[in-house]
Amino acid sequence: MSILVRIPTPLRRLTGGQGEVAAEGATVGELLERLEQRFPGIKERLYDETGQLRRFVNIYINDEDIRFAQGTGTALKTGDEVSIVPAIAGGDGSTLTNGRPWGTQGGPGRGGIGGRVIAPHGPPHKMEPPWQA
């Protein structure tokens, strides 16, 4: 079973610059283990010291957040597309500056420019050092 995995820019050094790779796995966890076998070092950037996905790592299957499914135990099938997406943030993580929802901090037509990008599942997270490859 072949699954398309989208790799974020900070991890592409580990994948030889590839932004998309094909991988296999019955679950998200198995898929990530197989990615680690092919691209050593990727797992330590995705998981914390307790073996849990880092809080700023978001994984989507066909645009659905695995946190609202079975997490890394979520089943995969041929043709699924998995995206690894780091939560990107800046600022100090305090309240929104204009009360607008995620992705609209910069004003109309500006997306997240001009403040910070707020992840839809909670407050902004600062990047942790292990993320950088």
What's the helix and strand layout?
Blueprint: E1 3-6, E2 20-23, H1 28-38, H2 42-46, E3 57-61, E4 64-65, E5 81-86
Plain-language structure description:
- The two termini are 28 Å apart.
- The protein is an alpha+beta fold and 133 residues long.
- It has two helices and five strands; from the N terminus they run ββααβββ.
- The longest helix is centred in the first third of the chain and has 11 residues, at 28-38.
- Strands 2-1-5-3-4 form a five-stranded mixed β-sheet, covered by helices on one side.
- The chain has helices spanning 28-38, 42-46; strands at 3-6, 20-23, 57-61, 64-65, 81-86.
- A hairpin with a 2-residue loop joins strand 3 and strand 4 (64-65).
Q: Which features does this protein show?
A:
single chain, 133 residues, alpha+beta, 5-stranded mixed β-sheet, 2 helices, 12% helix, globular
Q: Could you state the order of secondary-structure elements as H and E?
A: EEHHEEE
**Assembly category:** single chain
Largest sheet: 5 strands, mixed
> Helix share of residues?
10-25%
> What amount of the residues lies in strands?
15-25%
Structural class comes to alpha+beta
- The total count of helices amounts to 2
Overall pLDDT: 78
Q: Kindly, what is the distance between the CA atoms of the first and last residues, rounded to a whole number of angstroms? A: 28 Å
Gyration radius over CA: 16 Å
By DSSP, the count of extended strands is: 5
The neighbouring-strand order within the major sheet is 2-1-5-3-4
Segments where pLDDT lies below 50 for 5+ residues?
A: 93-129
Shape: globular
